């Protein structure tokens, strides 16, 4: 790995990142508190800690929805991404990455400020790795296919957050809505974050060592090291999800069995 060849610094998309950063801080501080109280009266009964987490997840869900829409559109209409996965300059992908960098930076700031409520070391590693990777795509326009492919993971985020909202609002863990949301969360998370791993790494393998790949210089780390860290974190989170779903399903099964036994008695 050496210097980057024939590539220039480009700050064109930095205003998008700054706007994204500012927008999500404003959403967290002012918009979410007001709308949440109006649309969900039970929100006001939550503890301060859960309200902070709630606003953080509102940010997360909106960010994921916007980025996922960009991602799907690009996959459907920019066929050049697959043909030139390293050097195709895609304004849509670079805009998505700028939004991600701005959001991730704002979320890291909020986690640091409210660390005792929403701070988690895994998320700092995740955000750091994501910012590092998408910074290069936003700035230099490289690796559009790989960046867009990784952004598919955001499709699962609103569903993960919805499950948390149900829990925060006091839904019983054996309630059908709670159980179905947990299963949907786990299946979706697996589909877009775990199942997609082999395809991603096969694509990396297909370009590894090529002339286009070698021109990347140290940005090669984005394809390999950064995404390896992110995949490890996703595997850890998926394991935790599976354990949680298993506990809920077992509790539901035991409850139904106890009710059946009482009726038989």
TrEMBL record:
Transmembrane segments: 12-31, 121-143, 177-196, 216-239
Keyword Membrane in record: yes
A Pfam family reported for this protein in Swiss-Prot or TrEMBL: TRAM_LAG1_CLN8
Alphabetical keyword list: Membrane, Transmembrane, Transmembrane helix
GO cellular component term of the entry, any: membrane
Compartments, record wording: Membrane
Domain of life: Eukaryota
Name of the featured protein: TLC domain-containing protein
Taxonomic source organism: Sinanodonta woodiana
